[in-house]
Amino acid sequence: MKESQPIQDNINHNVEEEMTMNDNVQEDLQPKEPEARQEEVVEEPQGAAEEVAAEAGNDAGASDELEKLRAESEEYQQRLLRTQADFDNFRRRTVKEKEELGKYASAKLITELLPVIDNFERALGSVGESTDAASYSKGVEMIFRQLEGVLKAEGLTPMEAEGQPFNPEFHQAIMQVESEEHEEGIVVEVVQKGYLLKDKVLRPAMVKVSG
């Protein structure tokens, strides 16, 4: 009976192991409950809201800047139109003034010459009267000096050409003559006076030049 006891223990042990294995298999075969899925929380990138707000602000700022530029453009266009109108008025006024100046440029000179004309008329009117030639000649000379003074006040001066070297800018040679008193190329005689109007040659002097 003592030998049969270990056998019985082995059998019992094997049965326990078999039952344990069966329990494990059943546990494996039973569907497992799905683990609670952790809800994924998608976090927005830091500063995204700030970027959106900044973009909105930039759009508003760009719109304001565009309106400002449009207003400035309109203002510049109005200024340009006013400037063009002012320039057109100035040009028309200048053309008119220029025409009037050209038309009446000699008015001042003629006004100053009127007394000379009056004196000439008086001199011509006294030709038939009993006056001697000397007094008449003196009167005419006075009128000439008066005329000469008026022209001189306007900048007219006669050239001093005789005895000067010939200069084609001031002299017009009409003849070349032999001269023992002057070397070659010297004005020996003035046939017609030349005149300067201020610093400009108004009329060259007609001269004879030594050869």
Question: What gross morphology would you assign?
Answer: elongated
Task: State the share of residues found in helices, binned by percent.
Answer: 55-70%
**Uncertain segments:** none
**Separate helix tally:** 4
- Beta-strand share of residues: 5-15%
Round the mean pLDDT to the nearest integer and report it. Answer: 80
Strand order of the largest sheet: 1-4-5
* Number of β-strand runs: 6
Distance between the amino and carboxyl termini: 185 Å
What series of H and E elements makes up the topology?
HHHHEEEEEE
**Radius of gyration from the CA trace?**
63 Å
Biggest beta-sheet profile: 3 strands, antiparallel
Computed structural class: alpha+beta
List the helices and strands and how they pair.
Blueprint: H1 4-29, H2 48-104, H3 107-125, H4 133-153, E1 156-158, E2 171-177, E3 187-192, E4 195-197, E5 200-203, E6 205-210
Parallel strand pairs: 2-6
Antiparallel strand pairs: 1-4, 3-6, 4-5
Helix pairs in contact: 3-4
Keywords:
single chain, 211 residues, alpha+beta, three-stranded antiparallel beta sheet, three-stranded mixed beta sheet, 4 helices, 58% helix, 14% strand, elongated
Describe what this molecule looks like in 3D.
- With 211 residues, this protein is α+β, with helices and mostly antiparallel strands.
- It has helices spanning 4-29, 48-104, 107-125, 133-153, and strands at residues 156-158, 171-177, 187-192, 195-197, 200-203, 205-210.
- The strands form two sheets. A three-stranded antiparallel sheet has the order 1-4-5. A three-stranded mixed sheet has the order 2-6-3, with no helix packed on it.
- β4 (195-197) and β5 form a beta hairpin.
- The longest helix is centred in the middle third of the chain and has 57 residues, at 48-104.
- The chain is elongated and about 175 Å long.
- The mean pLDDT is 80.
